[in-house]
Amino acid sequence: SGSPIIGSFDFRTRVDFVRVPGVIKLRNGEYTSLSLHLDIQETLAMRASIIRHTAEFFEPDLFLVDKEPLGLRGEVRDTLMMLKDRGTPLVLGLRDVMDEPSLLAPEWERKGVLPALRDLYDEIWVYGLPQICDPVEGIELPWSVYRKTSYTGYLGQDPTVERPSSLNATLFNEPFLLVTPGGGGDGGDLIDWVLRAYEADPQMPHPALIVFGPFMQPEQKAAFQTRVDRLPRVRAITFDVHIEDLLSRASGVVAMGGYNTFCEILSFDKRALIVPRTLPRREQLIRTARAQDLGLVKMLVDDGTRDPWRMATALRHLPQQARPSDVVVPGLLDGLTSVNRLVGRWLQTTHQPRVVAAQQTV
Predict the structure, then answer these.
(1) In terms of CB atoms within 10 Å, which of 69, 140, 215, 235 comes out highest?
(2) How does DSSP assign 263-275, residue by residue?
(3) Do the Cβ atoms of 191 and 224 come closer than 8 Å?
(4) What does the pLDDT average to over 261-287?
(5) CB-side exposure of 304: number of CA atoms within 13 Å?
(6) pLDDT at position 360, please?
(7) Is the dihedral of CA 326, 286, 68, 260 positive or negative?
(8) What are the φ/ψ torsions at residue 123 (nearest 5 degrees)?
(9) CA nearest 201: which of 315, 304, 299?
(10) What is the C-alpha separation between 184 and 191, in angstroms, rounded?
(11) DSSP category for residue 7
(12) What pLDDT sits at residue 350?
């Protein structure tokens, strides 16, 4: 994982992680290192080396790549080829939507993705349903790629598992709205718009708890906190490792349209107002528009003006709108069950002949 906060989370017994140098994506689509002492090329070289050496010594029974078929700027290509030669099953996991097909197709062509999908990967798992979003819709792919693609349903969470938040349960003595921009690195516009609504209308019926996110820039967070301190109906925190607890207690959720947040909203059956990001990718906009068409969420598109009364009206209506469970979508949250089944099928295959063959060649 490249996440700098990966160590904050709880893992079950025998689950561990290897940390690679983190990167962040800028609004112009470029990447930069989280470290001030490394340029992006040096960072990518370190990441590629760590990934390859980890895979080489760990000898996985299955290698699962997330989202980028060849890793960030091709960083996982050598590892894929090395494991392919060893006979390790290779799986690509894709979100329900990647980007506008007219933009994704030339990007994949530029990155040389098609040969990897065709020749390297044994299976492709799409964490969603084609009737909602299909990440390869509108992209010409060989039939062999479609044949090895499975749609799992969304990766839900178990809402009955107790995950106590660090915040006191009596944070508010009344129902509240949870405002979360995910990691927070690009969530400033959402938070600004919500704060404008509460500044313009002090009589908002529900208070708001804002979670800035761990990646929000300190200067921006400090400026928002100054505004929050002037509003008696708004409170803010930076991050909570068990935000699921806050989700379960909220009367409604205001968020961007990222995949993980969308899955949490579905899992906890929360009324949601989604303000999707439109740059540098249209992924969130496409996902949210499809979900709104089905009646799962409500969408509010930022037109750049961020009219406070438009947001205030949407926030007032939020606790009265329909829940996601009011819409019946078969298999909507079957993702984890499907992934367990798919993994189990591979793990039933013995690797003994491959190990013996490797020993004989030494």
Answers:
(1) 69
(2) HHHHHTT--EEE-
(3) yes
(4) 93
(5) 1
(6) 41
(7) negative
(8) -145, 155
(9) 315
(10) 9
(11) G
(12) 46
Q: Which two structure tokens, joined as six digits, stand for 192? A: 């600004």
* Straight-line distance from the first to the last Cα atom of the chain, in angstroms, rounded to the nearest whole number: 32
What is the rounded CA–CA span in Å between residue 101 and residue 360?
47
Could you tell me how far CA 92 lies from the centroid of its own chain? 15
Cis peptide before 135 (omega within 30 of 0): no
Residue 191 CA: distances (Å) to CA of 93, 201, 311: 31, 16, 11
The whole-number average pLDDT for the span 352-357 is 42
Question: What pLDDT score was predicted for residue 28?
Answer: 66
* Paired tokens of 96: 């329900």
Q: How far apart are CA 146 and CA 118, in angstroms?
A: 10
CB-CB contact of 292 with 300 (8 Å): no
* Spatial distance between the Cα atoms of 275 and 192, rounded to a whole number of angstroms: 12
Mean pLDDT of 275-303: 93
Mention every residue, 6+ apart, whose C-beta is less than 8 A from residue 309. 197, 200, 201
Alpha carbon distance 171, 38 (integer Å): 41
Q: Which helix (H) or strand (E) holds 197?
A: helix 188-200
Q: How many residues does the chain have?
A: 362
Residue 176 CA to residue 171 CA, distance in Å, equals 9
Strands of the 298-299 sheet, one edge to the other: 234-237, 208-211, 177-180, 252-255, 272-274, 298-299
> What are φ and ψ of residue 321, in 5° steps?
-75, 170
- Identity at 268, one-letter amino acid code: F
Q: Is 111 helix (H, G, I), strand (E, B) or coil?
A: helix
Q: Which two tokens stand for residue 291?
A: 């979900």
3 pLDDT above the threshold of 90? no
- Provide the pairing of β-strand 234-237 with 252-255: unpaired
- Written as six digits, the tokens of 222 are 């400090």
User: Rg for the chain (alpha carbons), in Å?
Assistant: 22
